[in-house]
Write a structure and sequence with these properties.
This protein is an alpha/beta fold. Helices cover 37% and strands 19% of the residues. The structure holds zinc ion (ZN). Zinc ion binds next to β1.
Length: 203
């Protein structure tokens, strides 16, 4: 964390497409990470697409502030206390792209009513709250259901997976229809980040 700027340079020089920024509030999940001032600093440091994942209890209250702080994409949880449609609209109005996230126990159907309003759906492939967890295999079925629904509706919605993604699990989620892969521990611990990212892309 205290070498954030040099770590961001590593992402840039190793051809990573986006920077995924996990915000946890100690209420929606049992952990606290960081918030607006750090995001503003990251925004000043890089031109990378900033994919902000809000694991917070009331995302509607903060959506505009995260957009102003530099988020390009804002994901929030269907399980949060905010009204889903209102939050999607608030994110769009503030200039960011809205994405709806669901936890492993939440059914695929929870996102169906909102697909036409969203740029992306985020399927959590571990329980949100901590990094370094193992991929939950059953979540791939949900990715497949949502990808089928997106295709049936003729949309080009991105489908992101987050949690336990590495060279062993990437193939499963790509085959299921995911096209945005979040990877933390696997990439940052790799000896060669560029090669590790290439293995993820290959699935
Ligand atoms: Zn995340």
């Amino acid at each position: 964390m205290l070498n954030l700027e040099s770590e961001i340079r590593r992402l840039e020089t190793n051809g990573i497409d986006m920077l995924h920024f996990d915000v946890m509030d100690g209420a929606f999940v049992d952990n606290i990470t960081y918030g607006l001032p750090i995001l503003e600093g990251v925004r000043r440091a890089t031109g990378m697409t900033l994919d902000v994942h809000l694991m917070i209890a009331d995302p509607l209250r903060y959506a505009e502030r995260f957009a102003k702080a530099g988020a390009d994409i804002i994901s929030f949880h269907a399980e949060s206390s905010s009204d889903i449609s209102d939050t999607i609209k608030a994110i769009r109005k503030s200039g960011a792209k809205p994405a709806l996230a669901i936890k492993p126990a939440t059914p695929a159907e929870a996102v169906y009513p909102y697909l036409e309003m969203l740029n992306m759906v985020l399927v959590m492939t571990v329980e949100p709250g901590f990094g370094g967890q193992s991929f939950i295999p059953e979540t791939a079925d949900k990715v497949r259901l949502i990808r089928n629904r997106i295709s049936e509706l003729g949309l080009d919605t991105d489908l992101e997976v987050d949690g336990g993604i590495n060279a062993d699990t990437a193939g499963t989620v790509i085959n299921a229809g995911a096209n945005v892969l979040v990877s933390g521990s696997y990439l940052f611990r790799a000896d060669d980040m560029s090669e590790a990212a290439g293995l993820l892309r290959k699935g």
